[in-house]
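Q: Here's a chain of 387 amino acids. Please give me its 3D structure as tokens.
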Amino acid sequence: MKKFAVIMVCMLMAFFTTTQAQDNKSPFIGDWELKAGGPLDGATLGLSIKDDGGKLKGILAAPSLGANQIELGNIQVVSSKELKYSFGIQGIDVEASMVLKDNNSLTGTLAGQYPFEGKRNNDIMSKLSQSQANANAVPERSDKIGAGMTPTMSEYWSPKPKVVTPGNQATASAPSDAIVLFDGTEKSMTDNWVTVNMRTQEAAPAKWIIKDGAMTVNKDYQNGGGDIQTKEEFSSYQLHIEWCVPEMDAKFTSQVRGNSGVYNQNMYEVQILDCYNNDTYVNGMTGSIYKQTPPLANAMRKPGEWNVYDIIYSAPVFNADGTYKVRPYITVIQNGVVLQNHTEILGTTEYIGFPQVKAHGDGPILLQCHGDPSPGISFRNIWIRKM
């Protein structure tokens, strides 16, 4: 009799344990078809959740996002109606949550921003496992922003860029929208350039030497020589300028050999120098931001041959207190070789001392007449495009 009672107790305990397990079966278990909304509108996903020894395990199928059979991780039952989980897709960890609306439908979000609706569908996992990604799907992207989009969704057709007719490649003539600052004539020099007295700041007509379509530095300060600068002032621009260092005696070396410079907004010098077999300090070489940044290469042609500078200059922006809000930047290309690649200019290019910050507005282009005794260099074909 005692043995029979023990058996009955064990049977009742097993019955109640089984009944309790059935009663405690998670309502999330099953296969779900998920329809994504928002930026992922149109994507269909499959979600399968199973009980594995009292723990929930899950698989996500997302062929439209380029992924199949992704194992869910970090499954957390928040309540009888809410479940959270995560999964990895193309190297990204994505968190998701879902809330039961009733036994056969749910709602949720992916990554906290992409909504989806779900319903029970026992065939969805097998259906998705046999399907291939839609032929029109956007190629895989690591950031997932383009998932579910079509190519036209990221295209825009206006405003149209203005049409600019390039110059003649053989002559390196100016584009159709450029301001020609020097075309080889006396008139273009006097129309566009002046000499400014450093002491009085009075402007006088530029008197450099015009010959064979080029203007050569005039070092005779008693007869109109000195630096010249444009009459017009500029902000950001693309500048094209061609220059030639004449052949000269070998006694002229280092900085005393074909020295000049292009001063952007009359503040920041891009060095010009004969660096063909002529050694000097590197932050004073041709194409350096003078005394600041050396060039990335030495692209000099021989004396007597023409060099070309193409300069892209971005003007600075200043705070109310005169400090830089945005520093000036410059790209310099000499003879097709990049010497400065969007280089940050630290301040004024000083001969003695270090860069200074001086607030300013638009400024002229200045071409330097260096005070050394070597023969003056020549310039031709100068044009500028405002940006």
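Q: Can you summarize the key feature?
A: The chain has three helices and 25 strands.
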